[in-house]
Specification:
Shape of chain B: globular
Order of helices and strands of chain A: HHEEHEEEEHEHH
Radius of gyration of chain B: 21 Å
Distance between the termini of chain B: 42 Å
Structural class of chain B: alpha+beta
Structural class of chain A: alpha/beta
Shape of chain A: globular
Strand order of the largest sheet of chain A: 1-2-5-4-3
Number of strands of chain A: 7
Number of helices of chain B: 16
Radius of gyration of chain A: 24 Å
Oligomer: heterodimer
Helix content of chain A: 25-40%
Helix content of chain B: 40-55%
Chain lengths: 228, 398
Amino acid sequence: MADDAATEAATDAGPALREQAADALARLQAELGDAIIEHGVAFGDAIVRVRPDAWRRTAQICKEQLGFDYLSFVAGIDWMPTPAVTEEGSGDTSTPAQPKEQTYGVGGSDGRYQLLAVVESTRRKSWRIILKTDLAESDPHADSWVGVYPGADWHEREAWEMYGFVFDGHPSLRHLYLPSEFEGHPLRKDYPLLAREVKPWPGLVDVEPMPGEPGDGDDATADGGASA
Amino acid sequence: MTTTDLPAPGELPEIAVDPAAFRHLAESQVNVELDTGDMVLNIGPQHPATHGTLRLVVRLDGERVVSADPIIGYMHRGYEKLTEYRTYPQITTLINRIDWLSSFANEVPFIDAAEQLMGIQAPPRAQYLRTILTELSRIATFVLFLGEMGLQVGAITPAFYGFRDREYVLNLIEAVTGGRFHPNFNRIGGIKDDLPWGWISECRTVMNKVLTSCDEFDDLVVGNPIFEKRTRSIGIIPQELGAAYGVSGSNLRASGVDWDLRRDGPDYLVYNELDWKVWTHPDGDSFARYWVRLQETRESARMVLQMLDQLPSGPLMAKVPRIIKVPAGEVLVNTENPLGEMGYYVISKGATGPFRTKIRSASFSNVSILPWLLRGVYVPDIVTILASLYFILGDIDR
């Protein structure tokens, strides 16, 4: 019982804003003003969604004025629902069934594409903030952070390759992981998981129906079992 | 002679960050047709100093590097895409293979993220076992480095010591988890099994062996004038630039940044219950990176000994539903892995698998500083720098 109480307390305490995160959020709000569209909480961390035209300015303020000297990562998000790999009712439960409607996470979004970045401080304990910005669906563009955080170079190349996001001001957007002749943006949700298209989930062949279940192939046994 | 006299922090000249230092980003396109006087040297994809397949296209002017362009992706396995089609328990199997030297440490932040989203807390004994195994992975990773770094700069002997000690630690991990490299031992809500009989005393013996061999490394490598000549002032990472590049872990602490997520991040595992110290070195060169890892190996061994003394009893698993469905939400968990900051940003939409997982791996950012770091160095120093940065290609390419 004591364990249950502790677990519940943890759940309640989880989503609250950490003290440092609240401080960081307040200072970012003071600097950016109405460039912040929305903000939210993710298990103690502040998520701040800024206007796309303020994306680069946000980085500058974070680095130069708020002491976020360390770039953790820049990444893309595609909010399109994950397409189902297997047909419904085929019995293949190997992939999780994701919701079919397009919903957005903490902080909301204007459309399908978003940029996600995390900056931290090496000088202050737990001093970190999560930043998001929306990108246009037809022609996703964002300002590059390379001039502010040089480490954004590879992260932005990755987002360009995987999502097709173009970073204005990036010195050389070229393929990072994939061969230079590769076409398509693999992390977009509409890009199929090719391995699964070519070969169905091999786990399927191992699934045998339980004796007596429909599809067992031996109906007599099933009936016999039921009557006995 | 056991230790080298280290310069005090004030004795070294301040390293000024040149704003023109970012120029290489524009120049990093390797153009073979221009500059006929330069030579283009291809290093890799297979090279002993690269744990995996990293290719470096280096343009040389005589013996000096004009520009270096790391080419990665030879081991890209698309884990971020795969996580969108897998359930949480399946994903722990995948992420074991990101940084294959410290697989156990990889699992911890991901499991932690899922547990936070579900509102589950692993019981204290499970937390302790996780911490012990994480530190054991750290020791296994670092003793390999301590031996191999010597090998890269021409000292063969330390490599054998390194592999020997790593074997002791891997045997310990295998005895608990059943797997030497990929334990897959964490479960959402706890840990799979308890320690086997006699493991604690065996672990104490091994930790004392590790502490002894750290002294050996101190004598054999750190106190070796040739090693010093090869590594001192080679590949200096300035603090601010390193942080802005996202260089983390021991590499950043070797530049004098007193930052360790085990102490400075949001609390995870049981590090705040232990008495330990974060080691830094003011120099930021290859030697400093070796020195910091040597001290951290000792510190980890001491931490394990402490944890064995205060290991609590109790259950190993919290109450977890049979089918793991994670409530909708977003969470960022980053931890101090042997190679640096390992983070997962998990977005869940209430299904049995995540909607999107961003895997922030340490080596990716650590290596992204290479084009800057390698400019102007001599060819043999490339190997020293690569070895001292200590990266795993699986951790870069994911």
